[in-house]
Amino acid sequence: MSWEPQPDGLSQIITLLKQSQSTDNMIQRAVQQKLEELNHYPDFNNYLIYVLTKLTSEDEPTRSLSGLILKNNIRVHGTQLQPAIIEYIKQECLMALGDPSPLIRATAGILITTIANKGGLQNWPELLPTLCDMLDSQDYSVCEGAFGALQKICEDSADTLDSSALNRPLNIMIPKFLQFFRHSSPKIRSNAIACINQFIINRTQALMVHIDTFIESLFHLSSDDDREVRKNVCRGLVMLLDVRMDRLMPHMNSIIEYMLIRTQDPDETSLEACEFWLTLAEQTICKEVLTPHLPRLVPVLVRGMKYSDIDIIILKGDVEEDEMIPDREEDIKPRFHKSRTHTQKPSLGGGVSSGDGAVRSMEGNDDDEEIDDPYDEMDDDSNLSDWNLRKCSAAALDVLANVFKDDFLPILLPILKETLFHEEWVIKESGILALGAIAEGCMNGMVPHLPELIPYLIVCLSDKKALVRSITCWTLSRYAHWVVSQPHDQYLKPLMKELLKRILDANKRVQEAACSAFATLEEEACTELVPYLGFILDTLVFAFRKYQHKNLLILYDAIGTLADSVGHHLNKPEYISMLMPPLIEKWNNLKDEDKDLFPLLECLSSVATALHSGFLPYSEPVYRRCISLIQQTLNQDLASTTSPGQFEQPDKDFMIVALDLLSGLAEGLDCYIESLVSSSNIMQLLYQCMQDSMPEVRQSSFALLGDLTKACFQHVHPHIADFLPILGHNLNPEYISVCNNATWAIGEISIKLMEDTKPYIPMVLGPLIEIINNTNTPKTLLENTAITIGRLGLVCPVEVAPSLQQFVRQWCSSLRNIRDNEEKDSAFRGMCQMITVNPVGVVPDFIFFCDAAASWMTPKKDLHEMLQKILHGFKMQVGEENWARFVEQFPPQLSERLAVMYSI
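-> structure tokens emitted (904 positions)
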């Protein structure tokens, strides 16, 4: 296709491209509007490709911009463009890959990959052969341009390239790339490695065939002069460690030596190399291969943890007092609310039972709570929160300490002595970070040194350097468990006193680190903090007046954690009068659409649960606003579904957080919530939320339904026929937390409905039995399922008992691990009822029942009698001789426990 532009059209487009480089917002907006209008002309895109590839009289930034606008057009409107135009663009892009300008070559490469992604590589069959042929060109620009495009394609379409749909082009491409490892141009060597690196993690067959050649070629380039080449060599070796350890093993010593040198490079290669230690720590052979190198590696990692000069400039390390400077909004990371999940407390070995097992904390949505990376929080600064050498070195030291445990210390302790007490604050800071990094792995070996180190760290909390104060907060939080286990006067009291002072530090980074560290201390100390509550609240409330936006959000978290940790001990008039006014003032000042409501509502939820009736004076406005937030979100959702173009979709987190706060209110106020419920349309709202398309909304609504069932069942009762089918429908373990909360709510409802649960048994029992027998079901869900099945058996034994054989073994295994509590009690009563109705059902798995009965510490008197009766009944039924043979299978501990508890 030959196409020529009209001169007027061309000059109009050039003018636009020039204007769009203006910094003036008004001009930018006008250009944007004009570009959208031009999109209605089919050959607008021809002009754009013409400017990029043919208009050499224009400056490069203008030509490149033309290509980037074209890229966006293809991304958005690609499917509507005429085939002839797309063909023209394809042919021009391939030509432009040999342009003398690197910027134009790169832009053409981006365009090619966009077309390939949008239309699918199978619809451009000549692309890969053409690019591979271009690699052999004598013209350097053509070879380099083609490699740039291939690298992007390998990155975006690694899986497709290995598919039979394309005839597995990698079989040709990988040997081809390997030839270029010895090319004279560093840029091309680097591209060749980067292309192959894309296929390591998936163990792509076409690469595995050539794996030895690839590894040899990597070794050959390991001491290349070019930084990018060395970086890609390190990256390749780190991935191979995960995937083809067998092939690296014979060379492991020299690879370790090499990575030791690279980790000390003054450029970004050091970060790529440092990843090697993190990956090696996960391999079983780590200890064996790394032991001889530890004395050299550990100092390198500790040196890597030192702030560089540039870090200190970015972190404004010389600015000590910045508390008066308002936060920039862009520095505040978006917060994600984690919906409530109903969990059980594990049984405490040795039989101490405490409180109700119904902990519904703000936990992860996938029930296996994700661990936040502590090194990501360490320097929580928007400019430095990217993964860097300091964080990677600290994380590597941490994981290696977990591998080597106390064997790490002979090497590390001399280094710590030298760094921790160093004159230079930057070195001292890195020593404090190292001490925190090894806390988990080397705790046992560190214990003898802590009586000297903890007081020293407490002194460092008032160091004149803010960056030393902030890292000290973090490191102390890593030893909080030990501090709490010692006599309070020795360490806990002085630590608390200093940490509270740091919460009121004049430096914002220190405030943040102190607040986070204090939250960790609260979780470890729990009710041990009760004697100091007044003192703690004084500080936290004072911080309200002092904090800028970002730290205020972390303060909410520290207050919520305090409420979770001390529970009802917070319910004292003097504490309530200190804590509630500032919280309610913030609550009144925030608009309904302000996302700061999330952390504040989470905090209030914990406070309401802890204060019980103490929250009553504040409950009405809080309750009403939650109802209003749910109503508003549902209305917006409806509007955006019925007329999508006119109304934006709502942020459903507002509704989720409101549902969770209502759960906290229901749990805290218990029957006192009745009057609020009766004068609102909460049941209608709940009915809608329970059917929402978003799993987290359903999860939180089922938690609330369970809590309202416990607190004021008279209001739930009239809606049971609507609610229970929805709960039954959500017994789908694909959404673990949703399924978990639905299961728990069914159990709570059955306890209140008693025999009226009967019509719903067929709807829920089958799915519950399926869940309890599924080997992939997580522990939390197993426990809640077992409790609910037990409760259904308690209220409708005749209906549930016939299925006993299908679940009794899994039921017993799941419930032996949880503490004595009301839920376990009602479930076991149900099991006893079912065994009475269908004794034959338990016979094949009776040993599991014996084990579950022995898991009780102090069952209530009548439950104890029921369990004893079943055990003795079984013994009589089978006769002394058979019983003796049966008991021989028991572990000695179990026989002993049964004899002591049930005299059998």
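The chain has a mean pLDDT of 89.
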